[in-house]
Amino acid sequence: MQSVPVQAFCVRESSYIWRVEPVISCERGKYHPAAFEPTEAILEPMARVLDCLAGLESSNNPLAYNPRDSDGFPAWGLLQFKDFTFKEKCVDEFGLPNDIWDGQIQRACAARLIAHKEEWRWPPIKNCLNGKHL
Q: What domains, with CATH codes, occur in the chain?
């Protein structure tokens, strides 16, 4: 995948999987209204960032379980979601299926959270955004 310099991203829905794609403009009706200006670092294609993050968080294991993450709470799955974050954000706010073990659902939710400038939820993401692990 070739990196394209862009000024904005749009979040597009395909089934329950959300992809963040670089675009020149967001066509009304085709894209979710959540167009956003990314933080300076989020200019790599989202799929590559999520692949990198999954490698750092779980060694790409959708069944990974950490009984005590750095904040003291357990974390589950490919992107090491906390159960309360997954329920509040992924299920309740974004309307995704309630299956914390599904890696595609975790990727879809993470893409939305990153699009909404919540990349702080994954401290290792800085290593993905600065190109160290891409």
A: 8-129 (1.10.530)
